[in-house]
Amino acid sequence: MKQKITIVGLGPGREDDITLGALKALEQGEQVILRTSRHGIVPYLESRGISYTSLDDIYDTSETFDDVYINMIKRIMESAEEGDVVLAVPGHPMVGERLTFELLKELHDSAYHIEVLPGISQADSVIAMVHHAGVEGLKILSAAELPAAQLDP
Q: What DSSP designation does 15 have?
């Protein structure tokens, strides 16, 4: 039987912004892994009795960002060998979240069943704050992965 990895979006950090689907998955998860515990929603998760581990230590022990994601995937796969995993990431799992894309690329033909539950992205929050109804002219970039010379504001 395939091990299940459910990737949920935590939203931008306020408890009002987490989806019911994500919250349900976190509350029912056998193993909950947060990409980072340095997120505004964490005190709310703790108040609901959700136990978790985080991948924060990997940032400190990896030499490059490429190593960070390799080590995160390795840890997630090791955890999945022990049972189903709920992986929680900031924002929306499919908007600017490299870990999601690396997992999908690495595990696409494997023995894992991956489900992605949406969340509210930082971009959604910004668009709502500036009352911008369309996405024309909107460009979302990952600053950590983009050389400064390529920025085109």
A: G
* Single-letter amino acid code for the residue at 64: T
Burial (0-12, 13-18, 19+ Cβ within 10 Å), 75:
middle
Q: How many CB atoms lie within 10 A of CB 27?
A: 13
What are the pLDDT digits (tens) for 81-137? 999 999 999 999 998 899 999 999 998 767 889 999 999 887 777 777 777 666 676
Nearest in space to 39 (alpha carbons), one of 122, 95, 99, 102: 122
Write down the pLDDT at residue 101: 93
Rounded CA gap, 77 and 3, in Å?
9
* Inter-residue contact 75 to 69 (CB < 8 Å): no
Give the β-pairing of 31-34 and 85-89: parallel
Q: Distance (Å, rounded) from C-alpha 10 to C-alpha 41?
A: 7
